[in-house]
Structure formats: C-alpha cells, structure tokens
Amino acid sequence: MAETTGSIMVDRLVDHFHDLPMRGVRIVQLGAGEQAAPSLHALDRDLILIHTHSKPLTVWEVLPDPDWIALTVPLRWKGDYMYNGLLAEPGDLFLWSGGDAYAARGADRVGLGVGLRRSRLNDTIGALLGGGRMGSTLEEGRIRPGAQAGNAMHRQLAAGIRRSLDAPLGNGCFRMPPSVANGLMSDLAFCLVAHAVSAREREPGRINARPVVRAAQDAMAASGCVQPSLSDLCAAAGVGQTWLHKCFVEICGVPPMAYLRARRLSTARDRLLDPETPPASVKDVSLSLGFINSGRFAADYRGLFGETPSMTLAKRMQAKRHGFGSSTSRSEPH
Length: 334
Description:
The strands form two sheets. Strands 3, 4, 5, 6, 7, 8, 9, 10, 11, 12 and 13 form an eleven-stranded mixed sheet that branches. Strands 1-2 form a two-stranded antiparallel sheet. The chain is built from ten helices and 13 strands.
C-alpha cells in the first residue's frame, strides 16, 4: 500500500497491523536487539484493543484512521517512555484525536493500544452527558487520572483482552464479546470526559518539536539514495542546527543524523525481508539507501540487528522456499 497523507507515506503496514484502522505505521529501531514480538488483538466493530511488547529501544510512529480515536496505554517499560516528547509515568494514558502521526519511544515496553470509533464514542459521551455535548474537543496529549485510577483502567483493558481469548479469529486476533466492548466504551468515554478536556500539557516556553521533526523526516523520505546533510535537514525544517537537535532529542531521543542512520538501517532490513518484491542482492539495497561503504553498512547493520544483511536475506529466501513468510516485525519505510 502506498499512501500519502501530507506528513507520512508508507509502502505497506506492518503485517500484524494490516487489518487495523491505521493509515500508516513506521518503526525505527534505535537500540540493538531483535524486534520480533507477538501481539494480541481483541476486536469489536467500534472498539479495538492491541497488546504489544517491543524489546529494543524503538521509535513507533503511528497515524490512525481519522474516523477513530486512539489511546496509547504504557504498562511497563525500561528507562524513559516518551509520547510526543511527554515523559510517561505510571497510570498515564495518551490520547490521539486527529491530525499528524504520533511518536512513542521506549525500550522493553509492554503496552496497550486502544481504538475507539469516533462516531460511537461521541454517542456514548452524549449519553453520559444526558444528551448534551462536551464543551470542548478532545485534545491530543496526556490523560493523567493518577496512578491508582490509571492502573485500575489498565487492568480493565487487560481484562478485556483476556475475556476475548475464547473466540479466536486467527493470526493473533480474537472477537471481543459485545458486553465487554460496551462496558469498556462507557468507561473510556467517562475517563475522556473527566480528564481529556484539558489534557494537553505544555510547559511554559516549551518548543513545538513535532512539526520540526516531521518536516525533517519528509526531507529524509524525499532524498532517495542521496543521504541528506544536516544543513539539508535544517533548511527543510526551517530551523538552525541547535533547534533541530533539540527537537529530535525531545521526540526521538537521538540527534537527527543518528535517527537518519537508524531509519535507513531499519528500512534496509524491511527491504531484505520483503516477501513480495525481494531484492536481488544486499548491495542493491545498500546503494539504494545511500550506503556507499558496504563493509561499514554490514557492520552497522549487524550491530543493530544482531546479524549481517546477508544472513537476513538468506533467512528470508529460506522461508520462501519452505512456503512461509518471515515472522520478524519490520519497520515501514516511506
């Protein structure tokens, strides 16, 4: 799937997100380790629960379908967990209500993703308000009900997945019982009414880093096999080197050129694992992404993913000969 939304373009979705209401997913692995981890999906027509575990330090950029509201629910993690530059604390939830993709960064993190069909959520909120309407729109940002109330909500959501396991649909998907979906929709609507009106938290003088990072990412995507320089990224984002550095560290946790390197290595892995249009050789992949020195490319790749590019390609070819697709999670390039 190739789709442009003004700020994100993906060739196709990660396999286990393929049938979900998302317009794009990009995974950029920053730390060493294997990304593969199973996910569980509990599905209802108007509510979706996703349980994921991502081990290496990774930036996930997700653009949900505009007909849906998305909640990110961190359960546990190692080090710092950041959502669009906001530091997560126990009990926090993070709301996406439309617009640009959101970015979540962390290591060894277990979390829940919640999708709520916008029309159904609005009807439920209206019912809770006695037929009235909420005085302001749901704004993207942190919802902080407190550790005790937040953890109670986490347990309710996790129980929603457990209560769906008796109705398997295949490929890690399960049918959510209607009674479970209705109860969770009501509880989540109440949570949003109570806490999301003023959910956007901005420190005084805090920079709006997301548009700056997005402009630089668009320049990275448009560069093809020619790796953009730092000055190219500054020009595309309309800011100086110091400002660009601050914005990338806030959103992605690393400077812009380190992010670019990890992004291109993640894209290389995706292409080597592509079951539909496999590359002719590792060299073709490395050159197409601007890696001129094949030895340096192989060393950097192995340092991040624990195997050489040739090993990845051989593994994919072996899986193809046996009639199986790769089970390794892959990043989604522009």
